[in-house]
Amino acid sequence: MKKILTLILLIIGINLSLSFDLMAQAFNCKKASTVVEKEICANVHLGVLDSDLAKAYKEATNTPGLDKDYLLKTQREFIKSREGCARRADLYNCVEAETRGRTGELAAMMAPFMPTAQGQGNVRALTGQYVFSSDATEGVITVSELPGGVLSLEYESYHEGFSCLVENLTISRREAEQYVANNRPVPFYLPDEDFEIKITYADNGVQLDQYLRRNDPQDSSVVPFCGANGFIFDNTFYAKTK
What we know:
Layout lengths: L1 H22 L11 H8 L1 H18 L6 H16 L7 H20 L9 H7 L1 E7 L2 E10 L3 E10 L2 E11 H9 L4 E5 L4 E8 L2 E9 L9 H4 L9 E5 L2
Antiparallel strand pairs: 1-2, 1-8, 2-3, 3-4, 5-6, 6-7, 7-8
């Protein structure tokens, strides 16, 4: 009986270990030696981003027609650049921005050799302008697709004579495809301002789920972006206009 129980616990342990490995970063944290590697290992979000990047790089290495020498060269340059984050005071934000940026670059490099990218139709349907209007209040979300495999979001609102404008929130197209395909909110963010807006795609519009300060989710202040009297209308549906 003890042998059977031990075997069951061993199997459960192996399965749990595999599950955590699938969700973790792309390298073995037991061998993490640099400041950046240790930061990635200490943060679940950075670990997931690094794992996504590793998957994108592996896909790129298997993409017929893509210049593999150039791919390797740019990957080495990226690693050197990301390791440079260790000298930055905003280590977390720097590592996140570098990792997201490289994932976007890889998606752009593969795009010419992938005529029909997975989820591309849904992402293109997400681009456009969306409006929420009520009495003296109006909110406008504009989502655009930029060169290099990047989606950009602009938010503008008007409330009792006061306005708010937040521009240049971005996410790589590859990441957005994954969120849309899994019916999850798409997070657009300002890397240098520690700010994020999440929207969920629907057939005739988008739901602005929330906005937050990434390093302090409890801080809902938008004063740095909208002024003392500006508003971002979250938990609100915005209908697509074009």
